Amino acid sequence: MTARTDINFYFDPICPFAWMTSKWVRLVQAQRGYTVDWRFISLRQINAHLDYDSHFPAEYEAQHTAGLRLLRVAAAVREAHGREAVGPLYAALGARIFETGPDEGRIPGWQGDPALVADALAEAGLPVSFTDALDDVARDAEIQAESDEALSLTGKDVGTPIIHFEPPEGVAFFGPVISRLPDEEQASELWDHVVGLARFPGFAELKRSLRERPQLPSFGVTTRETGEVEDWHAGSRRLKK
Length: 241
Fold this sequence. Notes:
- The protein is an alpha+beta fold.
- 42% of the residues lie in helices and 10% in strands.
- The longest helix has 22 residues, at 60-81.
- The termini are far apart.
- The mean pLDDT is 91.
């Protein structure tokens, strides 16, 4: 029987906005003593019905595929070491993907490199042999089921992350999408505002498609800079709607 948690956080490890939101949620978790179940949603799977060449920038298919490969590793870790092992692994992967320097010049899909994954596994205190799961397609059905579960909570026209607060009865929402990490005081204030809004029974959506590039080394944006504003659609920089 799965222990009850305060927050179910559905993430794709390739999504920079999920990563930024996860860092904020970890701040709130430490302040409020919340338990978090880190769950899976695959951008590659939820976009499987789309033609990548006409809908996304050129590198997206390789990146989304890398995210699915990383989720296979996380699924194998969860099966062998329990749900509590996923959070540390996600933290170690995210640090290597988003916090080490600009993506420019890297081969699309580099995030699924076995050496990167092995380093993350070692930091999380897990056997590096789990890199073997990168290409284990037998894990895909489990990831698809969890992705479907996430979308059943919010509807399909969303991206990552999806947060389910006080599951199973509590509210679930896509995002919030943030480009900057709040400080400790702002973290709790933002959390209360988001949950308070989502708890209103008639609330459906509050949205803008313009986003700053996140303040992450992978985007070459420091915490002292404001990232370039880009127009996003349904959680992705689509070439067309």
